[in-house]
Amino acid sequence: MLKVQDISITYEAQTVVRDVSLALERSKIIALLGANGAGKTSLLKSLNGSLPVSKGSILLNEKPLNEYSRREIAQKIAVIAQETETKFPVSVLEFVLAGRFSHGTAFGWETGKDLQIARECLEMCDLENYDARQMNRLSGGERQRVVLARALATQAQILLLDEPTNNLDLAHQAMMIRLIGERCKSCHSSAVIITHDLNLASEFADEVILLKDGKIHAKGEAEKVLTEENIKDVFNVDVLLDENPLSKKRRVTAIY
Amino acid sequence: MKARSPRLKVKSLRFGVVLLMFLGIAFGLAVFFGSERLSFLELTDAQAVILFDIRLPRVLLGACVGASLAVAGAGLQSLLRNPLAEPYLLGVSNGAALGTMLAFVFFAQIEFARPVFAVLGAGLATIAVYQMARSRTGMNVERLVLSGVIVTTFLSSLIVLLTSLLDAAKLRSFTFWLLGDLSQATKSGFYLTFVCVILGTILLSSQARALNLMMIGERDAFDFGVEVGKVRLIVFATASALVGISVAASGSVGYVGLIVPHLIRLTVGSDNRLVIPFSAMAGAIFVVLADTVARVAIAPRELPVGAITALIGAPMFIYLLRKN
User: Hey, are the CB atoms on B217 and A108 less than 8 Å from each other?
Assistant: First the structure.
């Protein structure tokens, strides 16, 4: 669905992403890992065209990304950004309906269908009866769930998520991961997730990409990428590797 | 923004009808009150001339000017995410005034030069304020208001320089006009403003939902499909045109773009799809009534309508600034 070939991103005379290639296929989840400042967020932003690339190409369904209009891209790619601006007083329902903008008509009155989808997504995110609440009065965790609901309301096939589990308690972390996983399975959607939780990546990602100084350090299945050597190289931390007794997936524990 | 429900839709519709009724009442008052009070039932020939050639064009122009300024204010406020953004305070009106004066001084014979120069002046002032207010960290309230002050004072000094080129008789009418004056209303002036305000309101309303998203945040709006640059251009261009045309016709009537959208938001919430068209109606009502007061208060002499609107607007500005 999304094919990235040899892209570099230069930001204020500094190259933050260098020669990165990746391919996102249907129903797949890619996890982007790396130390702070490794270029994860820049790479993610380039995937929906909000940060221009200085080199290389990004193809969405075999067509260059920059040949699509913003509306078309927003119908196909939804974003959960790290920081969401919510200074202006806006109700939760209104905020989630913003996810339906790209499906809108001239003059932009939302239809009954838009409302129904928005309400369903709120319900999925454990936010019934939040319709009229103001965004700037919510807790960090509640706001993060509204942001997820808005992304789901777009019904986009590709989700780009920048540390989506930030601010969430354990139960809602699980809920978010489950929702994203379900969306990828049942709707053949796919997702790129930035996370600092190596175990989360190991459990749920089909492919893990380790970024270091803007370059891909290692890429592939979690078992192959999350090795003691790679983690030492990228995070400069010694780890203990074993197997999660339930899922039989690789488990990473930092040694302090 | 309030949550949308069928009840709210009915409520908004009812509010629209109420505004229309008020607009009718304002028209009635404005047409029949004045230094020459007119009767509903019978008019002498002289009174007919007053009604159709003087008063009616003036009332209609006042309505168009009020609607233009209120709509421009509502658009700029959403775009700049700042309830204090107002054409008069940002220096946009002064840009238009300077343009009008330049046209008057140098191209006095060409009638359409004035609105054209006014629109250009308004556009340049808008760009100047926007560029000055923008910083790496974004745009805050203080920076925007300060930039507006700088542009306003700079343009004012240019206007003063230009007025010194005028003779004494013209000077008085100019000072009056600068404060906002509808007494020079003509039918052709009304037609032009009428067409512009209708087109401008439709154009801005068509961007209302995109503006709603941009009020949440420009980054977010971009991610969710808004062509941010295009919307910004449309709003700036439309607001400049609306302000330019109305200033060319009636001078700088201040604070309309501040008071009216604020009152509308208090009533229907901040959804631009309602705020923009309702601001047009309420702006028309406000200026028509203010002009009636300006005509009647010290009859047979007149006050500039801009003085009336500023008397109401300035305290409100202070209130909004403190609330921010």
Answer: no
